Amino acid sequence: MPQVMDKEVKQGVQQDEPIVKYENICKSFGDLEVLKGIDLDIMPGEKVALIGPSGSGKTTIIRMLMTLEEPTSGNIIVNGKNLWKMNKNDHLVRANDKHLRQIRGDIGMVFQHFNLFPHMTILENCTTALIHVKKMEKKEAEERSMKMLEKVGLGDKFDAYPSQLSGGQKQRVAMARALVMRPQVMLFDEVTSALDPELVGEVLEVIRDIAKDGEMAMILVTHEMDFAQEIADRVVFLDNGVIAEEGTPEEVLEKSNNERLQSFLHRFRNGNGV
Amino acid sequence: MIDISILDVFPVLLKGVSVTIQVLVLSAIFSYLIAFIAGFGRLSKNVLVRKFTGFYIEIFRGTSLIVQLFWFYYAIPMLFNVQVGSELMAGVLAISLNYGAYMSEIVRGSIIAVDKGQREAATALNMTRFQQMRLVILPQAVRMMLPEFGNYLIQILKATSLVSLIGMTDILYHGNMLRSTNIAMAPTIYLLILVFYFILALPLIFLTRKAEDISKKGVASS
Ligand SMILES: Nc1ncnc2c1ncn2[C@@H]1O[C@H](COP(=O)(O)OP(=O)(O)OP(=O)(O)O)[C@@H](O)[C@H]1O
Ligand SMILES: [Mg+2]
């Protein structure tokens, strides 16, 4: 009974194995070598904060997982499947769009600049992918989206357009839009750094809320060190294209002896980190 | 005296209105169609398709519409022994290919002008390329195209008068015929022709304004 076996193995995989595995990932833009061999495992439900100086490649790391950028070499494994390579006649070849689509359904992303669809209402922003990608009934999609909008505190704005919202509200909609798809891994790319300082809190509050729910893995690129310390299971410090330090928030943010990390954190605590 | 001549001219010109409108409507439809096809062609991943569309666009933008019209009506049928068909076909084909070439640049430019974060967000929601175009990119791009499309519609209306040169009985044709029998009426005739075209243009001007409003509302940057 090979099929049953398969199933059991798969369940085992989901519990003990990482949901995302970066294997010796390198990435160059032209002559610029941005990532020089990244190995990183993300466990199901794990919250990982990714920190590092500007230009160290934090955004690039998560964009490759979202299939927005292709690695120069190395493998990214999602749920046991190679993201950027597929089998063709017993050869590993570059993944095509269909292959990418099969895998990236498990991944969601929230962008620094929200990227809401300006021609759709808030509700439509949330329902459109449910209806067209997940083939959900419109009514069901709307119910699920309304619940999520209420959860992020924007239930009353469902028929507004993005241009009518504040930055903090836009980012909360962007999160609702990503969350209704129920990804297993959610990527956050400095989601508060385009916001006015007084709007940061409401967005962090929502992330805190999502994190508490538990089952979804999260990779947060962030410059909010206190927030990283608060919600992350693990902090990863990226420097010069490699992972220079990684561990629990306490280990990395308080007890590390890494000099580059020390000076990076020092710059932050003096308030000119960004 | 003048009153009488206006009353004489008016019904003659009126006979041409339906032809003018017919050429306008058909040319507009085909121009937009060609504009989209060529606009996408210019954005194709296939080099050959890109080059070929680029070639078509440069040819039709780089030569005059009136010469193109004569080509379709006189030269091509003789040279290649293909019947382009009626005057209407030749006229609509020339105008559509000419304006389609111009407007394809608007289509291409508008699609490119949609913020690349929009496509990325659509990818993150796992839309297919086709869904990304249909649900996210095009609705925003079309809003950007609308005002320019309106302007070109007015230009197409003006260009329709060229079909009188291949014997189509539009407003200008009837005016010219009348003038050839009565040269003294020329000022009245051409004044009235201007008025006719302007009245036809009015709804188009109104449409363009509307399009500008829609366009302003539709794409606020996120
Ligand atoms: N599409 C691209 N083309 C060329 N260079 C790029 C591209 N994307 C990123 N880079 C470069 O790669 C390097 C890493 O970029 P990345 O955005 O990943 O850094 P980051 O750690 O997110 O920085 P920041 O904190 O400023 O957001 C930078 O030097 C950047 O200029
Ligand atoms: Mg970044």
Automatic annotation (TrEMBL), chain A:
Pfam families: ABC_tran. It is a peripheral membrane protein. Its main location: membrane. It comes from Cerasibacillus quisquiliarum. The lineage of its organism: Bacteria, Bacillati, Bacillota, Bacilli, Bacillales. The keyword Transcription regulation does not apply. InterPro entries: AAA+_ATPase (IPR003593), ABC_ATPase_HisP-typ (IPR030679), ABC_transporter-like_ATP-bd (IPR003439), ABC_transporter-like_CS (IPR017871), Ectoine_EhuA (IPR014343), MetN_ABC_transporter-like (IPR050086), P-loop_NTPase (IPR027417). Residues 20-265 form the ABC transporter domain. It is found in: Cell membrane. It comes from the Bacteria. The keyword Oxidoreductase does not apply. Belongs to the ABC transporter superfamily. GO terms for cellular component: plasma membrane. One of its GO terms (molecular function) is ABC-type amino acid transporter activity. Keywords: Amino-acid transport, ATP-binding, Cell membrane, Membrane, Nucleotide-binding, Transport. This is Ectoine/hydroxyectoine ABC transporter ATP-binding protein EhuA.
UniProtKB/TrEMBL annotation, chain B:
GO terms for cellular component: ATP-binding cassette (ABC) transporter complex. One of its GO terms (biological process) is amino acid transport. GO terms for molecular function: transmembrane transporter activity. Keywords: Amino-acid transport, Cell membrane, Membrane, Transmembrane, Transmembrane helix, Transport. It is found in: Cell membrane. SUPFAM superfamilies: MetI-like (SSF161098). Residues 17-202 form the ABC transmembrane type-1 domain. The keyword Cell division does not apply. Belongs to the binding-protein-dependent transport system permease family. NCBIfam families: ectoine_ehuC, HEQRo_perm_3TM. This is Ectoine/hydroxyectoine ABC transporter permease subunit EhuC. The lineage of its organism: Bacteria, Bacillati, Bacillota, Bacilli, Bacillales.
